[in-house]
Amino acid sequence: MSIKARNLTRTFGDKTVVSGVSLNLSSGQITGLVGPNGAGKTTLLLLLSGLLAPDEGEIEIEGVSMSANPSSARKLLGWMPDDFGVWESLTVFEILEAFGQAYGLRGSELLHQIAHVLALVEMEDYRRVSAQTLSRGQKQRLGLARSLMGKPRVLLLDEPANGLDPIARLELKRILQDLAAEGITILISSHVLSELEEMCDDTIFMNHGQVVVPEEDQAELFPWLLRLDKPEIFTNWAEEFELPYQVRKQRGRDYFEIMLATDDDATLLRQTMEMLGANISELFNDGSSLERKFLSLEPEDPLPLRSERDSAVSRIESAAIAEGELPARTEATGETLVAGDLGPEKPVQSEMSAQPGREQDFQAKTKEEERAIPEVNDAV
C-alpha cells in the first residue's frame, strides 16, 4: 500500500476533529476525500502530510513509518494546501528552484526536475514569468508543480480546483490522471463532486471526524428519481405510502424527489402522476451519483426503506383506484384529477441534506510552515 493509516485521532482542546480514521491507498490510485464542512478533511490531510502529529494512530508512506522516520516519510510526499500562497516577487523558475534546493536537489538534477514538472503542468513558457502576473489557474498549476519538486510518490491535494474556471479544471483533471498513470498516489479533497466522480478510482466519505459509509443501499435499491414541483403537496403523501423521498433546492426552487426501485415502477408512477395532473419536472436514473451518496451522509429525518417485494408504486395506484381517484387500468377514460386532490397541504417535514458545520482553520499554520525553508530542509 502506498498510504496506510491506522486509527488516526486528533483533538484540539475538548473537540475531537479526527476520530479513529483508518485507510489504505494503492499506488497509482486517485482517491476523493468527500464530506461536509467541518468533517475533518483538512485535518486528516495535515496528519497524513506530517505537518500535524496525531494524538493516536500510525501512518506509513510506502512502508516508511511517519512517527519512526518522519524525514524519510516526508520525502515521499507532495502537499498542496487549499491556500498555498506564492512568492509574487519571484519568477516561476525561482520559486521552483527554491523548493528544489529545499529538497536537496542541486546542479543538473535540479534543472532537470524543474523542466520536468513544468512540462507536466504545461508551464514551460512561464519559467521566467513573475508569479504575480499569473492567473488563478496558472497559480494552481504552479502550486502543483511546487509539490512535485521532491519527486513524491504520494500527492495530498486540498481543494486544488477551488476558484478555477471549467477549462482550467479540465486541464487540472488531465494532469492528475497523467500523474496517476505514472504510479503516483493521489488523495484529493474537493467539493466539485461531479469531477471527483469522473476522475477518482475510489472515494472516502468523512463526517464528524470519522470515515463513514454513505447509504449506498438507498441509491442502489432506489436508483430512479422522479422530480416534481410543489413539495408541500407531496411530502405527506409520500410518507403515507412509505416511499423514500427528499426535498431539495435547485436553482432557487424547491423540488420533491421520489426514489424508485425499477424501470417499471418509474414508468407506472409517472403515468399515475400525470393522470393526477402533477407537474413532473424530470424522471432519471441517478443510482450511481456521488452527490446522492454525499447527501446521504447525514439525512435530517431519514425514512425507513421498504424491503418487501411488493411495489410501493402498485400500492399507490391500487389505493387511488379504490378511493375512486383513478379509473381502473382496464377502463378507457380521459378523466384526470389535479394534484391538489391528493390531500390537504401540510408543511414540509423532512429534508435530506448534509448538516453544515465549521472546520477549524489550519491554513495559516500550514502557510507558515511552508514558508519556513529551514522547516522544509529539516523535513527532507
UniProtKB/TrEMBL annotation:
<keyword id="KW-0547">Nucleotide-binding</keyword>
<keyword id="KW-0813">Transport</keyword>
<protein>
    <recommendedName>
        <fullName>ABC transporter domain-containing protein</fullName>
    </recommendedName>
</protein>
<keyword id="KW-0067">ATP-binding</keyword>
<dbReference type="GO" id="GO:0005524">
    <property type="term" value="F:ATP binding"/>
</dbReference>
<dbReference type="InterPro" id="IPR027417">
    <property type="entry name" value="P-loop_NTPase"/>
</dbReference>
<feature type="compositionally biased region" description="Basic and acidic residues">
    <location>
        <begin position="358"/>
        <end position="373"/>
    </location>
</feature>
<dbReference type="Pfam" id="PF00005">
    <property type="entry name" value="ABC_tran"/>
</dbReference>
<feature type="region of interest" description="Disordered">
    <location>
        <begin position="327"/>
        <end position="380"/>
    </location>
</feature>
<feature type="domain" description="ABC transporter">
    <location>
        <begin position="3"/>
        <end position="233"/>
    </location>
</feature>
<dbReference type="InterPro" id="IPR003593">
    <property type="entry name" value="AAA+_ATPase"/>
</dbReference>
<dbReference type="InterPro" id="IPR003439">
    <property type="entry name" value="ABC_transporter-like_ATP-bd"/>
</dbReference>
<comment type="similarity">
    <text>Belongs to the ABC transporter superfamily.</text>
</comment>
<dbReference type="GO" id="GO:0016887">
    <property type="term" value="F:ATP hydrolysis activity"/>
</dbReference>
